[in-house]
Amino acid sequence: MKIRCIPYKTKKIVNIHKHVDGWFWEKYSAHPYIGCQYGCEYCYWRDEKYNMLAREKDARDLEDPFSQYIKIKVNAPELLRKELSRLPKEIIYTGDYQPVEAKFNLSREMLKVCLDLGFPVLINEKSPFVLKDLDLIKDISEKSWACVLWSISNHTSEGYSDIFEPNLPSIESRFKTMKKIAEAGVLTGTAFMPILPFITDSDDNLEAIVKKTAEFGGRFVLAGSLTMSGAQATRYMQIITRHCPEVAKKYRALYNRGYIPKCEYTGGIGEKVKKLCEKQGISDRMPRYIPPGKTAVNKKVAERLLNETYYMELRCENKYRILAYRKASWGVDEIDKDIKQLYYEKGLEGLKTIPGVGSKLSLRIEEELLRL
Ligand code: SF4
To answer: Looking at the domain 4-280, which fold is it?
Structure first.
C-alpha cells in the first residue's frame, strides 16, 4: 500500500486531560505520528473530530488517507522535554509502533525523555515492534512505573482479522509479546477493545481472551464495547453491511443512533468478563500507579471510587448517582491536601470541603480511609 510520510514541526505535543478516566489512569498523552498505517476498520481515530487528514489537499487522491497519509512530528522529543519539565509526574500515554517508527524512531526518543524526567508511562500497542524499546520500558518501570497494554479483540471469530484488521500483526504474536513484556517484569494486560457486538462478543471469545491473557502473563483485562461516531461509524457500518448484513441490522437497535450500545449490553459483557477474570485470578480493572507523596492516599481512594463507578455503570444504576460519584472521585483525586490529614483534623466536615463531596460521599470516603 502506498504510504505518504509528511514530516513537520508541531507547536505542542502534550495533551493534558482534565480528569483521569478510571480506565487507563493517564493524565497526559503525547504521540509522535498522526494517522495510522494499520488502518483498523473500527478505529475511533477515523472520526473526523480526531482525523483531519482526509481534509488535507495532498491526501485527497489516496484511497484511505487515515492509513496512507502519516504526519510525522519530527520535533516531538524536544517539545516533550520542554512541556513535561513543567508538569507534575503523572502517567503519560505515549509510544506508537506503527511501521514508520522504524525510520523515525520518535517513540524511542520520547521514552528516553520520560525516563530522564521520571514520568510513568502507559503504552497501548498492537505490534510486537514495541520490543525494540523494551530496555527503556523496563528502566522506566523500575524508576517509576510502566504498563504495556495489548489491544486485542478477537481470538475465536474466523475471518475477523481479514475484514477488520487486515494490516495488523497477528493476535497470536501480540500474546507472545505480552509474555515477553511480563517476563521483563513490566505490568501488562489486555485492552479487550473494541468488542464488536455480535462479532467478537461470544462467550467463547470472551473466555478465550481472558484465559490467554492470564496464560501469557497479563494481569488484567479491560472490556470495552465499540463506540460509534461520525466518519468512523459510517465506514464501519458500510463494512459490516457488506460482510455480515444480518448483523448490521441488529446494530440499529443496539445503538439506537447513540455513541455506545445500550447499557444492558455493555453491563452484561462487563459482568461476564469480571467473572472470567476472577476465575483466572486476574483483574478486570487496571491497577493504578500511585506516586509517592502527600496525595498518595487521595489517589488510592480515588482509584477505589472510580472503580466503583465502573461497577455502578455495569449495573445500569441511575446516571445522576453515577455522575455524583465520578465528580467526588475527581475531587478526591485532584485536591492537593492529604485527605487523611483533613479527616483527622476535621472529621466528616473536613471531607465535605473536597469538591463534589456531600454527606453521603463523605461517609463512603471515611469508610475507605479507615480501611487503608
Ligand atoms: S492500531 Fe490502533 S490506532 Fe492504529 S488503526 Fe488500529 S485501532 Fe487505530
So the answer is: pyruvate-formate lyase- activating enzyme (3.80.30)
